[in-house]
Amino acid sequence: MAMTEPTGVWERYQRVRAAVDAAAERAGRRPEDVTLLPVSKTKPVELVRELHAHGVTTFGENKVQEALGKHEQTTDLPDLRWAVIGHLQTNKARDVARFAAEFQALDSVKVARALEKRLQAEGRSLDVHLQVNSSGEESKFGLPPEEVPALAHELTAFDSLRVVGLMTLAAPGPDTAVVRACFERVRELQRRLLDDDRAAGSYTQLSMGMSGDFELAIECGSTCVRVGTAIFGERPPQNDYQHYWPER
Ligand SMILES: *Cc1c(COP(=O)(O)O)cnc(C)c1O
Which residues lie across from 168 on neighbouring strands? Predict the structure, then answer.
């Protein structure tokens, strides 16, 4: 979707929401079954406030430091929730345990262990998605699909982590067949986990789709689309994609 006109953030949000609803309907799905998660990374907290004033309460950030900073600037909005959607280093687990409502990028027992310990100390629990590397070698983060069931089994030991589903970033680029294959791989994995009695938690949620591919993701069963650019406008170049894709 091309959305380059300098319109306000609420108008852009509404346009994306309408596109999400239309994609769901085309796929024979209910629009209310697809969450739109605005991703505010690199953008000023004023834009978060503007959307919050219209009733939007959950925002995605891929870096813990930035999310925490924005959280601290918005403590006057008690219903504001932060979803951390990017890779976590164990030394940041304490921060996530303190303020995040969701963590969508769990991809190791090591991080699970660090989070569990900190969550216990805070007396909190956290909704988590397991991040799947659905695109092969290109991405630095997420587990290959075949390794996800083993992690799901190990997570039964972590009471403070509520596994709600899977998250993925499809391969970047314009080839829809390649993107679709990524989403289908995750959906297939979801089916396996739903049937797997040894897997911790539930796997009803599929966080898939960003500005460039959310309509396709919804067609492939996404229940949460993470949209930055189409709502907040372009980000400075080389900010985030390098984080995931070593070279393009
Ligand atoms: C930045 C980011 C998004 C949003 O990307 P856009 O292409 O700007 O919509 C989604 N998911 C993750 C994990 C991100 O880091």
Answer: 132
> Digits of tens for pLDDT over the chain (248 positions)?
554 555 799 999 999 999 999 999 999 999 999 999 999 999 999 999 999 999 999 999 999 999 999 999 999 999 999 999 999 999 999 999 999 999 999 999 999 999 999 999 999 999 999 999 999 866 678 999 999 999 999 999 999 999 999 999 999 888 999 999 999 999 999 999 999 999 999 999 999 999 999 999 999 999 999 999 999 999 987 655 555 554 43
**Domain 9-242 CATH class label:** alpha beta
Structure tokens at 146: 């075949």
36, 39, 215: residue to mutate for ligand 1 pocket, most atoms within 8 A of CB: 39
Q: Where are the beta strands (DSSP E) in the chain?
A: 35-38, 58-61, 81-84, 102-106, 126-132, 161-168, 205-207, 224-227
Mutate to test the pocket of ligand 1, among 58, 61, 85 (most ligand atoms within 8 A of CB): 85
pTM of the model: 0.93
In angstroms, what is the span from residue 140 Cα to ligand 1's centroid? 15
